[in-house]
Amino acid sequence: MNFIKKHYELLLASILFLVIVETHYPFYKAIILMLEFIVIIEVVKMISEFIEKRRLRLRYVIDVFIIFLTRDVIILATNPNKDYKEILFLLLVIFVFFLFRILAVLFSPALSKKKNTQKSF
Question: pTM here?
Answer without folding.
Answer: 0.68
